[in-house]
Design a protein that fits this description.
The protein is of the alpha/beta class. The protein contains ten helices and eight strands. It has one domain: P-loop containing nucleotide triphosphate hydrolases (Rossmann fold). Helix content is about 50%, strand content about 15%.
């Protein structure tokens, strides 16, 4: 049986960075589930399809091809054969992904794809509903949290590095709106799994969070091997 690590948490909590580092250190395949929803969002935006237009979304889902690849040490995202690793992180996608991720037909398409990836290999998977919906029986469940202000600060700094023009206030408001949408949506609302281990990264460095999570996973792996 494959070993599955589920890391859930809000935008800006650092789960993407941490998941990537931990995956490399522990030889786990890193699955960025958010990238998959971002791909669908990007495709819908490119075709001027709104989140309320279910028939057109279904058409897109029938033909969409999403691939997560690792090339020359880099995690790349391909949408219908095109490298969209940078494009899915633009402000346009950031502002719309929560709306599309709440659409039931999109989640019904993406969730089985995520499960399939975790059935054939040892994975570390990050998202919003990995421990609650995608892998409720994951070997390790971690809920990585962070204060709203620090999350906005981190995302703001990321945007500067990527050349995305936005103020701290705009990023903070965007994160607030996204959190509201994700926690109040009808389909797979964003909540902490009851049996998830809570880790607050607000005042911790990347190294400290990585060390803490590796310790949690190592302990669980040892327990599983001894069963």
């Amino acid at each position: 049986m494959a070993f599955v690590v589920a890391i859930d948490g809000p935008a800006g909590s650092g789960k993407g960075t941490i998941t990537k580092i931990v995956g490399e250190k522990m030889n786990l395949v890193n699955i960025d589930t958010g990238a998959m929803y971002r791909c669908v969002t990007l495709e819908c935006l490119n075709k001027n399809v709104k989140e309320s237009d279910i028939d057109k979304i279904l058409e897109i889902l029938e033909n969409i091809n999403i691939e997560l690849k690792k090339e020359k040490g880099e995690n790349l995202v391909f949408l219908n054969g095109k490298d969209v690793t940078e494009e899915i992180r633009t402000t346009k996608v950031n502002e719309n992904v929560a709306k599309f991720a709440a659409v039931k037909v999109i989640r019904d398409k993406i969730t089985p794809m995520q499960r399939k990836m975790g059935e054939i290999q040892d994975v570390i998977m990050e998202g919003r509903d990995i421990g609650t919906v995608v892998f409720p029986d994951a070997d390790v469940k971690i809920f990585l949290d962070c204060s709203l202000e620090e999350r906005a600060n981190r995302r703001y700094k990321q945007n500067i590095q990527k050349g995305i023009n936005s103020s701290y206030e705009e990023v903070l408001e965007s994160i607030k709106q996204r959190h509201k949408l994700e926690t109040e949506r009808d389909v797979a609302p964003f909540v902490k799994a009851e049996d998830a281990i809570y880790v607050d990264s607000t005042n911790l460095t990347i190294e400290e969070v990585t060390e803490k999570i590796i310790e949690i996973i190592s302990k669980k792996k040892l327990e599983k091997n001894n069963e």
